[in-house]
Amino acid sequence: MKSYLPLVFSALVGLTSVAQARSLDAIRNSGVLGLCAHPNSLPFANKAGDPPGFQIELGAAFARELGVTLRPDWIITQYQMRSAGCDIVLDIIADGEAQGETNLKISKPYYRTGVALAVSDGSRLTSFRSLDEHSKVGVLVGSMAAMTLGQRHVPTSTFGFEVDSLEALVNHEIDAAAVTPTAASYFNLTHPDKAVHILALDENEAGLNWNVAVGMVRPDDQLREAIDGALDRLRTDGTIHRIYERYGVVLQSPR
User: Is the pLDDT of residue 100 over 80?
Assistant: First the structure.
């Protein structure tokens, strides 16, 4: 449903077929925590490692909390996740219904995100409700925003990637881009000469906002408790916020 998310969100179908998932004891005995991530999906993850992406940095923080090291399991398509053997997936939608096909166990939520409007400075637009038949909005093909705006007869232009819609916005091809704050924030960090204005999440749009959590592949109770405990510590000491801020992303507290 939330097609604004990178592969690590949208490609979770098929995790039910992962042959083995390990207990906390098995992870500690092996000395590694496996994280499934896309090798070329900044700001989320980057196999080249410069920068590594916030999922890799946060995964390493979780590994340290468990007393092990991180092993990135690089995947491109959902089918590879069936044999990747990873233990966790980051930045998943913290909703049991959304994860119905994945069978992922969900940690405590650690931030809130969704779909926001990115606009040019001086735009008259203030929220999704301010859109009308004169507003042209960039959306991802097949996304919830595309469906929502289509039902309201707001003109849209479809894109395959969020960055493409942001480029179209700065080139004045569209009036707004319906994107995640994460994508827009990283765009601003990496394109300071083209920075866009990111409107606040509109909580009146229930289908376009969600909490984010750690997804665990068939964990035992001890692993679930350990991940939740690590989350509490990493949030309290500011580690999570500092990691995301390095990528231009300021996290909102979950609701």
Answer: no
